[in-house]
Design a protein that fits this description.
By secondary structure, the chain is α/β, with parallel strands linked by helices. The chain folds into 2 domains: 2-79 and 305-328, no CATH class; 88-295, von Willebrand factor, type A domain (Rossmann fold, 3-Layer(aba) Sandwich). It is built from 12 helices and 11 strands. The strands form 3 sheets. It has a 6-stranded mixed sheet, with helices on both faces. The chain has a 3-stranded antiparallel sheet with strand order 1-2-11. A two-stranded antiparallel ribbon has the order 8-9. β4 (129-135) and β5 form a beta hairpin. α1 (10-29) packs antiparallel against α4 (55-71) and α9 packs parallel to α10 (260-270). The chain is rod-shaped.
């Protein structure tokens, strides 16, 4: 409960002071008689009327206090909050070519670093539809845009490289971008985003990157492109079977190259941003940056209804004051 005029409550203090002063002077003005001995008076039992002589004054003080509370206008506040949430539709497009096994990112390699960062990103969203597309020499939709975050997290955890998934290896950037854009073409969200992650350059697919980019631009999709890993000669792990069928891990030289010009243009032409994640934990910072820029818009409308609660206090004050007047002029009347 709140008070519309809380400053009125200071009158309660004033009433208390005035009442105390009045009682003090009344005692001083009370007539007295002198007796040689009060032993006989000690045996006299006070009557109910004599015990209640101050009741009218008490009732008047209580009536005034209740009147002050009514003057302060106690109110019951009922607040309703209406939230208008404008979500974002996001498709994460992840390269799963065998080169993503290169071990230059934590916790193990490029693919595992990307998976862990993607899962953390998904866990931080609340009202955005998120989809997941993978690609190597061809592209597949793992999960279409959905609010079922648990499903996305589960499927993201199951992602493997092209060789393990038995799909065509390579890097089909144009096919992947067209597939991701197609997943957002019917979206009604005002903000539609593709997070495009790759560690290579286009060398496969039936759709060239320029066509894929035009498709994305035509649908008004913003692209955040991420180049993963360092350029240059490195080693890619290869898993073979020995004579006893045991899996053994070896390495072979590999030339890693990210087409930064293409990825930069993909981002620039669609209003997004290009990032290079070449250090071990740099992917975490990249996704934090994207998360900060692509925020869900939430409009909060607050409605407050006030119910007046002063009538019962005012009624009680009137009743008590009338009772004090009646008692003071009848049964509890003081003789002059």
């Amino acid at each position: 409960m709140t008070f519309h005029n809380p400053e009125a409550m200071w009158l309660v203090v004033l009433i208390g002071v005035v009442t105390a002063v009045a009682l003090f002077y009344r005692r001083k003005k009370t007539p007295t008689l002198q007796f040689s001995s009060v032993e006989l008076l000690k045996s006299v039992t006070p009557t109910l009327r004599s015990r209640l002589l101050n009741l009218p004054s008490v009732l008047k003080a209580l009536a005034l206090i209740l009147a002050v509370i009514a003057l302060a206008r106690p109110q019951e506040m009922n607040t309703r909050i209406k939230k208008n949430i404008e979500g974002i539709d996001i498709v994460i497009c992840l390269d799963i070519s065998d080169s993503m096994l290169i071990e230059d990112m934590k916790p193990l390699n490029r693919l595992e670093a990307a998976k862990e960062t993607i899962k953390s990103f998904i866990e931080g969203r609340t009202s955005d539809r998120i989809g997941l597309v993978i690609f190597a020499g061809e592209s597949f939709t793992v999960v279409p845009p959905t609010l079922d975050y648990q499903l996305i997290l589960q499927r993201a955890d199951e992602i493997t490289t092209a060789r393990e998934a038995h799909i065509k290896d390579g890097t089909a950037l144009g096919v992947a971008l067209a597939n991701a854009a197609g997943r957002l073409k019917d979206s009604q969200a005002k903000s539609r985003v593709v997070i495009f992650m790759t560690d290579g350059e286009n060398n496969s697919g039936t759709i060239d990157p320029e066509t894929g980019l035009e498709i994305a631009k035509g649908y008004g999709i913003k692209i955040y492109s991420i180049g993963i890993g360092k350029d240059g000669t490195t080693r890619i792990p290869i898993y073979l079977r020995d004579a006893f069928g045991q899996k053994i891990k070896t390495y072979q030289p590999f030339e890693s190259t990210v087409n930064e010009d293409l990825l930069s243009r993909m981002a620039k032409d669609t209003g997004g941003k290009y990032y290079r994640a070449s250090k071990e934990n740099s992917l975490v910072g990249v996704f934090k940056d994207i998360d900060a820029m692509e925020k869900t818009k939430i409009d909060i409308n607050k409605f407050t209804n006030y119910t007046e609660k002063f009538p019962p206090y005012l009624m009680a004050a009137i009743i008590l004051y009338l009772a004090a007047l009646i008692l003071g002029r009848s049964w509890l009347r003081r003789a002059p």
